[in-house]
Amino acid sequence: MSKKIRVRFAPSPTGGLHLGGVRTVLYNYLFARQHLGDFILRIEDTDQSRFVPGAEEYIMDCLRWCGLEPDESPLTGGNYGPYRQSERKANYRAYAEKLVADGHAYYAFDTPEELEKMREDFRTTENPSPQYDHRLRQQMKNSLRLSKDEVAKLLSDGVPHVIRIKMPADQTLRFTDLIRGEVEFNTGHVDDKVLLKQDGMPTYHLAVVVDDYLMQITHAFRGEEWLPSAPVHVLLWDYLGWKDSMPQWAHLPLILKPDGNGKLSKRDGDRLGFPVFAMNWTDPKTGETTTGFRERGFLPEAFVNMLAMLGWNDGTGKEIFSLEELVQAFSLERVHKGGAKFDFEKAKWFNHEWIKAATPDRLLPDVKAVLSQQGFEANDDDYTKKVIALVKDRCTFTTDFAEQAGFFFKTPAAPDMQAVAGKWTAEKTHFFNELMNKLPASKDAAAVEQIFKDLATAHNIKVGELQLPFRLMLVGGKFGPAVFEIAAMLGAEETGKRIRQGLQALA
Ligand code: GLU
Predict the structure, then answer these.
(1) Which of 42, 301, 401, 412 is deepest in the core (most CB within 10 A)?
(2) Please, are residues 250 and 177 in contact by the beta-carbon 8 Å criterion?
(3) What amino acid positions are annotated as catalytic residues?
(4) Is 385 in the same domain as 442?
(5) Any idea of the CA torsion for 306, 310, 314, 318, to the nearest 10 degrees?
(6) Of 407, 426, 443, which residue constitutes the final position of a domain?
(7) pLDDT digits over 85-122, tens only?
(8) Is ligand 1 within 6 A of the CB of residue 196?
């Protein structure tokens, strides 16, 4: 029997969840669902200096909003827990010590000052930023250079130390990446990364390998920015004797700025006016809040659809996919190698398509939230759903419902009739006065239209000249769906009230 597919998303809780992060979640999720596997959320919080309170909850809320919930996580638990690396601290030292015993790693006792001095002393034009590596390790204070006794003494004296991997000076490593194919590295360029820190916490490099092994991860998908770390990980899998269990890697392409090259950043979003986070994020250090896709008025269905297409397509030109359809259609083979440019106009297009296609029932909770935030009272769900059906095609964002639907819930304050005042006549006033009394009790747009047209003929005024003033009276602006639909929805009484108000403004 082949192994059960297990994938993981392994964020560090250092801030808000970026587009790229959610896309990594999505590809993990799709792959797991498609193969009836498990999708695991593991919090990589071993770097306590970068820990940001609230970030973990934020990440989980994001996944919930997107509908991409993990099967195992710090919140849900599972058979491979704990799912926070800080709670797994006791696991790691033994593996690091084993690497030392086997000659693949060593103790390093250098102080921060000594490391700084190394960077100063060995700087040359050929080597402008010297690293702790095979060229310099013999000059440093570590168990490779010191005698056995000296090392034993330092250890028993409790002198602070780290454990570093001993990267081979010149070895070619190859592995197959599911997206990039055969990848090759020379170990000579990689420094002797710290595996275990002074405080006994592992670094990312050790923890990711140990936990992917212990959690029986079969496939590891992560951003391309991790590719340079892959040789360290491949070696660790080998040195720890787990080569045959190593997950298959897939390094996902970067999400690029819309205007030029380079990785998309929060700054690009601020500069060009679009969100890069899934949801609002308030940085607890600066107190600064950044708008996310959710708050901007995206539907999660549209957000997920848009993200899926940032670097993947099914080859048929189809663009609108539900999550279920994505689970069926997704394939790693069709993920592009090159970076995907983020286009906010395209993101808006996806959202508009999803709003147009959504049923009023689906939109109801979102629209009610938007309306209530803007001070509109939408208490009658049947009425609200009819309004949604009338205006949804005009909304790109759910937040647009405030403007597009607000006038169905609140009489516009003193309408601006400026646009029609110049051509106003006493006859038109008569027309509207009469219309008020003739409006049908039934909420039937065709009936309103018929009465309106008959009356226009009777007053010898062109219908076209009466529709704009009617709209201004009802809506308070030059927008909205068909004016007879609006009048029918508002009902005779409210329509009459708005006509009276409009006539007053004209008088
Ligand atoms: N903790 C890493 C991050 O923050 C995870 C990288 C990986 O998936 O291996 O992105």
Answers:
(1) 401
(2) yes
(3) 266
(4) no
(5) 40
(6) 407
(7) 999 999 999 999 999 999 999 999 999 999 999 999 99
(8) no
